[in-house]
Amino acid sequence: MLFKRYTAGVAVAAMLASAAPGQLAVAQTAPDTPVAGQVDPSAEQAPQRPAPAADFDLAEGLVVLVNDVPITSYELRQRMLLLIAMTQVQPTAENLPAIQQQALNTLIDEKLQRQELARYEVNIPDEDVDAELAMIAQSVGITSEAYLAYLADGGVRPETVREEMRVRIGWEALVRGRFGPRARVGRNQVDQTIQRISAAASRPQYLVGEIFLDASRVGGQQAAMNGANQLVQQIIQGAPFMAVARQFSAAPSAASGGDAGWLIQGEVPPGLQTALDNMEAGQLSRPIPVEGGVYIIYLRDKRDGSSTSLVNLRQVMIEADPDASDEVIAAATQRLNALRSGLTCDNILERSRQETDMLGADLGESDVDDLAPQFQQVARSAEVGSISAPVRTPLGVHLLAVCDRRAGGPEAPNFNEVENRLRGQQLSMLARRYIRDLREDAHIDFKS
After folding, report:
1. 25-50: per-residue pLDDT in tens?
2. The pTM is what?
3. CA-CA distance, 57 to 80, in Å (whole number)?
4. Distance, CA of 332 to CA of 389 (rounded, Å)
5. Which residues contact 62 (CB under 8 A, 6 or more apart)?
6. Does pLDDT of 282 surpass 60?
7. pLDDT for residue 382 is more than 70
8. Which of 3, 72, 305, 332 could make an SS bond with 318 (beta carbons 3.0 to 4.6 A apart)?
9. 8 A C-beta contact, residue 298 and residue 240
10. How far apart are CA 301 and CA 226, in angstroms?
């Protein structure tokens, strides 16, 4: 064995920004109980301390052959040091085996990716690597030289960093080239997604950071749970969330530091929904077991959705003064109820013109908050295409047709944003299948 095996598994956690030591307190309760604490999710931060070179024993020699291409103990140690430096996870006896396993999995994938890049003659010039390095360094507010110096303090050689970037850039280019045409998104698919978002605009929504530990890659479900618990502790002690998510998460959002965006109530797995319902903005969950792995979620923000809902209404009304008698209101209500069953958004205005003493009107599209208080509940909760029960206002008694609803406000996605998001999701899925198939077809010989 490469070094002494311990019982703990992979350690991973999710937050979309660095958290200083002591900011999060662990709740000693059920797995989906949130870990209370406030963090700043606005941006990544530069490393707060030099990355110490980890002190662990690693036997010299050959570790794995991947289609007869070796992975050496030197490469494995370098990749472990890179993981430790980039995530600022403090290596311990409990989490070193997890760090080793993650580093080894990554190296195996990279060897397979290198072989595919050579097969398709994809070559990434130094200039592209320099640009990637500069972009990463700039994102944390330092120069490329300072970034490499920080990693060197942790024992990571510049060529390790540059070659990891070169393979990653090449792989992304290869995936786009091979599968880009298959990741086309049709207009109907985009329209349906926008309609789904709009229909759910009045439901609670959650801005979520996520980490998913794939049990099949970390030694089983219990290993994933053990490791997730370890990394919750590491995050509490100051490990930057975005960096840890990028290095360890198996979710498609790993590339963006675990940013899952706004999720809508009812459209996430039940276990995650329960946790989100019980969390406040700024809280980190405990590990949440799901089929095939374990999640850790960080609730960056939440909203009820009402402020982002635009609704298109039409109405038919019988006028009645504010001081109209109960008998007058009851008669108007009875008459509207008798008419209601045959009304639709398409015919409500025409039907109103066929009736005496009824007024029909197209109210157009309005922000729900700008509507009369008596209309707001119907506008928020009624199904699109439905006709409300009679509603009393100071002007009279109304039937409301909810003809459309969509998300509004500055955060409402437009057509291009939804199209790009769906295309990115398809490419990510195809890339995962690609590397999975390469692994299944490869000859991977682990050395003792």
Report:
1. 333 334 444 554 444 433 455 555 54
2. 0.66
3. 12
4. 12
5. 70, 71, 72, 73, 447
6. yes
7. yes
8. 332
9. no
10. 27
